[in-house]
Amino acid sequence: MKTSNRITALACVPLALGMAMAQAQSSRHYGPEDEGRRFSDGSRVVCEKVEVQRSSSDPNRVAGTAAGAVIGGLVGNQIGDGKGRKLATVGGAVAGGAIGRKVQGDRQEARGDRVIETRCERVWR
Predict the structure, then answer these.
(1) Is 64 exposed, middle or buried (0-12, 13-18, 19+ CB in 10 A)?
(2) Buried b / exposed e across 78-96, counting CB within 10 Å, b at 16+?
(3) Are residues 22 and 56 in the same domain?
(4) Are residue 54 and residue 89 in the same domain, yes or no?
(5) Neighbours of 17 (CB within 10 A)
(6) What pTM, to 2 d.p., does this model score?
(7) Inter-residue contact 51 to 118 (CB < 8 Å)
(8) What is the pLDDT of residues 59-96, one digit of tens each?
(9) Is 30 strand, coil or helix?
């Protein structure tokens, strides 16, 4: 490794450490006991109650998306011939995936248990 590359690499270390420390400070978690706390930079901790869904076993809706894509691809494959069939298969898979994701999300929302949580964050005003 050239000397100039080493110097450049060593010069970046303090910058990276400073960024990591700033991120660690900003990602601190605050609780209800910190509400109203003020800091020297003018920021303060504000808490609010939010409704949160708790019983979702598939929060990314992978099952609904996959099932919809398979069904949509099969339906799309029944349309057209040649390149048109390939295009219809891909289009059907994409549309089916979107529809399956939406349907699963609606069902999860309708069945989900909801709880009220207090979430606190540091705001600068």
Answers:
(1) buried
(2) eeeeeeeeeebbeebbebb
(3) no
(4) yes
(5) 10
(6) 0.49
(7) no
(8) 788 899 999 999 999 999 998 788 899 999 999 999 99
(9) strand
